[in-house]
Design a protein that fits this description.
The protein contains no helices and 18 strands. The chain has 208 residues and is mainly β. Strands 1, 3, 4, 8, 13, 14, 15, 17 and 18 form a nine-stranded antiparallel beta sheet that branches. The protein has a seven-stranded antiparallel beta sheet with strand order 2-7-16-9-10-11-12, with no helix packed on it.
């Protein structure tokens, strides 16, 4: 059984007071007529820790609320990329050294990459698959300290998304207590990327 505890559809001038920014972007707005949160990430923003590339980045734009227990976090995001690695999606965060994000990352010379980054003990990994299109549903399910990451293609209005699993992961610093859960967007290379989120939904509980 699940219980819907947050359903922000961005159809009002201000969003739910339980949501707050970590590293708020300079350019963001709520477009009530389109029911969308529009985010334009600043250049040089990212979430990554050490692995392969060597750098540490913890300055992406993250709109979150704090949640305890099992949860289901969902959004639908559209994107207009400009530079390699432009990304927007969902994030669950314990600390700078322990978190999970999922998004579509832009590649100018090939297909975009749908994937997930899992960071444990201050080291990130990255699993990917090719993705075509500029809109996607994303979902993260927390069950104890284990996480299922899923996506769905955009479907006709009134239809149910067909969720496809892309990652099953464990966050080692997750003790089952409070986590930060929400939307994020980054532009590691340069400015000009625009992401539009239709919603952020959080349900307590787990799927049967």
């Amino acid at each position: 059984m699940t219980e819907l505890i947050l359903n922000e559809t961005f159809d009002q001038p201000v969003f739910d007071s339980r949501l707050q920014w970590f590293h708020p972007p300079q350019k963001w707005s709520i477009q009530t007529e389109a029911s969308a949160l529009v985010v334009e990430p600043e250049a040089g923003t990212d979430y990554w820790q050490k692995t392969h590339y060597g750098f540490e980045a913890d300055n992406g734009h993250f709109l979150f609320t704090e949640v305890t227990g099992n949860l289901i976090l969902t959004t639908c995001v559209r994107f207009r990329p400009a530079h390699q690695y432009d990304q927007a999606g969902l994030m669950v965060r314990i600390s700078p050294r322990c978190w999970l994000k999922t998004s579509v990352e832009y590649e100018p010379d090939g297909p975009a990459r749908l994937g997930a980054v899992v960071t444990n003990f201050g080291y990130s990994d990255w699993s990917t698959q090719n993705f075509g299109g500029n809109e996607v549903w994303l979902r993260i399910r927390r069950e104890s300290s284990d996480y299922t990451v899923e996506y769905a293609e955009v479907i006709p209005l009134g239809s149910e998304p067909r969720w496809i699993q892309i990652r099953l992961a464990h966050l080692h610093d997750d003790s089952g207590g409070v986590v930060q859960a929400g939307l994020y967007a980054c532009s590691p290379v340069g400015a000009g990327y625009v992401a539009e989120f239709d919603c952020i939904q959080i349900e307590k509980g787990r799927l049967e």
